[in-house]
Amino acid sequence: MPLFAGDGARAGTLLVDGVFRATGKAAFDGDQATIAVTAAPKLSRREADDVRAEGVRLLGFLAPSMSADVVVSAFS
Q1: Count of CB atoms within 10 A of residue 74's CB?
Q2: Which pTM does this prediction carry?
Q3: Alpha carbon distances (Å) from 74 to 13, 35, 43, 64, 67
Q4: What is the number of other CB atoms lying within 10 angstroms of the CB of residue 24?
Q5: In the chain, where does DSSP find H-type helix?
Q6: Edge to edge, what strands does the sheet with 12-16 contain?
């Protein structure tokens, strides 16, 4: 279920083709910025690649001087 926007939200929601498919959380440590994406159900290879590319663009906006990494995994 998607998280509602507002105070206290710990993770953002991720849509694929307009449908909720994952949550994502950014973390910053030293010169490294990472977004951990957890998807349900598992994303196709193309969808995961698109999510990684979008995550890198988002981190470039949030932390332009940091190295960017996006980790995509499926809900356990």
Answers
A1: 13
A2: 0.78
A3: 14, 14, 8, 27, 24
A4: 20
A5: 45-62
A6: 12-16, 19-29, 32-39, 67-74
